[in-house]
Amino acid sequence: MNLRGRKSLWIVGIGACLIIMAFAILFAFRHGGQNLPYHDSFLKNDAGEWRPFGGIWEMNRGAVYNHSDERGAKLVTGSADWKDYALDSDLKLIGHGGDVGLIVRVGDEERGVDSYRGYYIGLRSADSALVLGKADHGWMEGRPVPMQGGVHAEEWYHLHVVAYGCQIGAEATNIQTQQTTWAALEEQPCLERGSIGLRSMGTGGEWRGVSVETADEQAWRNIRIHTSFVAQPEFPAREADYNRMRETYFKDVYAPVRNYRNFPAGDSGDGALDPNLRNLGTPEVVPIDSLNTLPTSSQTVTIRGVVTLTSPLYVQDPSGSILVENGNAAELNLGDEIQVSGTPVMDEFMHKFKATGVRLLWDRTLVAPVSITSSQAASGGFEGSFVELRGTLASSTKHPDHTITLKMYDFAQSFNVEVPNGISTDKFANWAPGSRLLVRGICTLPAHSGGSGTAFTILAPGISSVQMLNGPPWWTGKQLVRLLILTLLLVCGAGYLYLRLERWKMAAILGERERLAHEMHDTLAQSFAGIGFHLQGLYNGMRTGHTAPPDALAMVQSACEMVAHGHCEASASIAALHPDADEGQDFLVALDHSTREVLHSGNSGSMPIRFVREGVARPLSTPVRDALFHIGREAIANMLRHANAREMELRLRYESKFVVLAIRDDGVGFHPPQLSAGMGIRGMQRRCGNIGARFEIQSAPGNGTCITVQAPYRLGPKLVEWLKPVRKSDEDMLA
Amino acid sequence: MLAKWRGMSVTALGGLLLCAGCKRFSSSNTICVIPRQASESMWVSEHVGANDAASQYHVNIYWNGPTEEGDVEPQIELADRAIRDHDLGLVLSPNNPFALNTAVERSLEAGIPVAIVGNPVSLANEERLTFVLNDEREAGTLLAHRVEQVLNHHGEVLILGIDPVASRYPDRAAEFETTLSREDPDIHVVERVKSAFNFGAAELSAEQAILAHPHLAAIVSLNTEASRGAVAAVNATHRATHISIIGCDYSMALVFLLRHGLIDSLVAQNMRAMGELAVESVMKESRGTPVPAKIYLKPVLITRDNIDSDPIQWMLYMDWRVRR
């Protein structure tokens, strides 16, 4: 292999490697790239790979919490390519009602109750059931299984889920009592692959020790052996069937309505409160804003409001908000309506409330933030309130415990935003300085935020409380430099492309000129030379008187024949050069005409020549068409002159990648080495070389001759030609 | 031949550019259906109806909604998504009669036909805007007649769950009171409790009213959370044998309670038919076929006597999967 060939090979190889690498990166990017086994990093306060869809998620004590009652809140991670695996996690319900669980083979997830594809396995408190079902932007439930010992809030359970083939098995164990329940579900066809997730429905939840590893059939059998049936994910179509199922399996436990009066939760401090405190008419319940006028630490009062933040605990009623200490917020969710008894205390210049008892009244209260300006926030009028405001990001810091501090500003104020730790921190990477952000959270003044020098601090409940409205403006200094570099690169690229095109064009012109020169040399120049030779001989003979009149006549006749032949050749070349030569008819017809002229001029009689075309005629590039025309013409002429053939065949075959011209006769043939050095054969070989065609000649004395030419349809610039630098000579030519 | 191909190419390219530039070009075969809440059985019935119609028209349904009834923000976000995706149509059950106006107008400006289901928005009739509404007057009349029947034309009634925003329109509570005062002056409405869509608040309000009115004989609850709150309050005050609860709308839990006698009856919107009609209206609008600006569907009274009848079970059907 020569140097040029090696270079081409290297370039092609590198190009192929680059393409493969690009595909690999794209594939890894699209499929998450996480491998099994998987173990969470909750103990390190790190859950950056988890993506929240609804809910208020945070991390603490090696566990991840959802502190909201939102229905269908999800936290998803893993790879879309995970197929057969076992998912394990400890979990518990926070608050009461609803259910918590795990989802497997998750895809197409978005915010909403059942807005994902996948299988959900959960512990439901309403009927104390282990639930299995399929979600596909709707919910289809398998037959629930009553949980041994029931499902209770604030108790830890271990859930072991196996997804193998189209079978889903679940094993739920109460960690305290070690009571275990099994359930199984099978669906054909099924969702075969997908990531994993944590999900809560209508209550808060807590998960820890999440791990995934590949599972085999035995893992599924270990669960199946304990189940009495394999449920199909059929949501009962009729209401009558659905409620009959509940009456059959959950008659004694299903409670569609629970009364909060008899369901104390979250009591803390010095003990539970008097149930009568729930009565709105009791004088102890006071509006929160009235705490500002009460003497501090003097009397026990009761306030009632909605939880707007759990860590620290903030409670809001229509009159205002307040920070509550000793509130056992770990068991409360955002949106819980609670009643708190205690005493107001003064902390520097702001009020706090020291709780002695907290009682949950009800849950799932919608809390809408108040949209305010930064100046309003700084005024102190919204201290402790759940607010929403916009600002521009100045800088952001991720702390070792994975909490995030955003420094923001608008036209009037600078302020901080504190985002809880750990969840989906990859979102943080998109918040570039200069971005416009919408922030929701509790507004606190410096006394509560550690005197950071800013006007106020927003405590965001979760990372989803920060939304990016717009990225940084494009006209920043950095962006302008990037734009300038990009423009320069584009200009250089365009210039280079222009030079390449000009070079290609010039090369094509030169090639055509060279071809025409060869053409003229082979036809007209040689004819003129022959004629000149004859005329010179005649002139010399007549001048010296040595040429007899019959000889002179013969020489003149020969010269005339050569003129006629030259004329013929020139006509054929001009015909082949005409732009319409290949339009509407292929050059086989042109060859036919040319052959008839040769036969007519040579008085070769009526030799049968068959012209055969195979395949659908396709346009040929001009060099290819000309070369084939002249090779065919030359071959026919040679056969007519020398072969003494009885019949000839010219076959033109259009293949997928090549056009094949085969000229065959049944004449006397020859020994190939005999004529390989002849001008005709050499000319044919030269023409083939010019168009990258394969030339083959088969002949033997007495067995006729067959000439085959296999040529590509088109000739174009090669990649290597494009990549080659512009030569000085080319530049000179262009100049 | 070449010229012909060139001509065709230029025409096709021009057409594509025109389509891309045209705001009314719909690139999707999907109708976005946004219920007031995505998972409760009443809205699942709407999903069933929407999918029934979609299968007839060979279009897809994108189904998603707020996790809580009353939450407006997710509805606005989902409507914006429908506009962004150039959906074929938008079927919306608004959680608020005013807050969704801008989203609806944006959809109409984008050339997306909109069908409002259940309760109206405060928009005048516009091109490509259809209302498929529950007949609230009929609902009020059904409630009144049931109360008359249960109380035997005499007694005290509490109305629970009045929505102060929605009540600016002629609603079921107003019609209920009008019918009662016209037909049964001996039945008195002792209190009208306004509350947001919240179980706990409804329970607390109902408890207070029950304690304040010892002769209370019936509670008319105007939404599902109010009905649940009423049941909890009646149980908590041990007045289940004295107070009948007649509710509006339904959920599986409420129907379960009805079957067990804790709720007397439910006046239910025919959400399945509404979902079907809404998708049909959108499809007709997108094809230029005229549709009525407002379509009213009559609600149905569900009692223990008729709960297992075919028409009621058809209405409560919950299998939303598409049948093609």
Describe this structure in words.
The complex is a heterodimer of chains A (735) and B (324). Chain A has 735 residues and is of the alpha+beta class. Helices cover 30% and strands 31% of the residues of chain A. In chain A, a hairpin with a 3-residue loop joins β30 and β31. In chain A, α6 runs antiparallel to α7, α7 packs antiparallel against α8 and α9 runs antiparallel to α11. Chain A is elongated and about 155 Å long. The C terminus of chain A is likely disordered. Chain B has 324 residues and is of the alpha/beta class. Chain B contains eleven helices and twelve strands. Chain B has a six-stranded parallel beta sheet, with helices on both faces. In chain B, α6 links the parallel β6 and β7. In chain B, α3 packs parallel to α4, α5 crosses α6 and α7 packs across α8. About 2% of the residues of chain B have low confidence. The chains are: A alpha+beta (735), B alpha/beta (324).
Q: Approximately what portion of the residues of chain A adopt beta-strand conformation?
A: 25-35%
Which chains make the largest contact?
Answer: A-B, 43 and 44 residues
Element-by-element helix/strand order of chain B: HEHEHEHEEHEHEHEHEHEHEEH
Q: Given the structure, what is the number of helices of chain B? A: 11
- Strand tally of chain A is 33
| Main β-sheet description of chain B | 6 strands, parallel
Report low-confidence residues of chain B grouped into runs of 5 or more: 19-25
Rg of chain B to the nearest angstrom?
23 Å
Global geometry of chain A = elongated
Structural class of chain A: alpha+beta
Number of strands of chain B: 12
Looking across the biggest beta sheet of chain B, what order are the strands in? 2-1-3-4-5-11
Q: Give the overall average pLDDT of chain B.
A: 88
Structural class of chain B: alpha/beta
Taking all Cα atoms into account, the compactness measure Rg of chain A is 45 Å
Overall 3D shape of chain B: elongated
Low-confidence region ranges of chain A: 261-283, 728-735
Number of helices of chain A: 13
What is the helix content of chain A? 25-40%
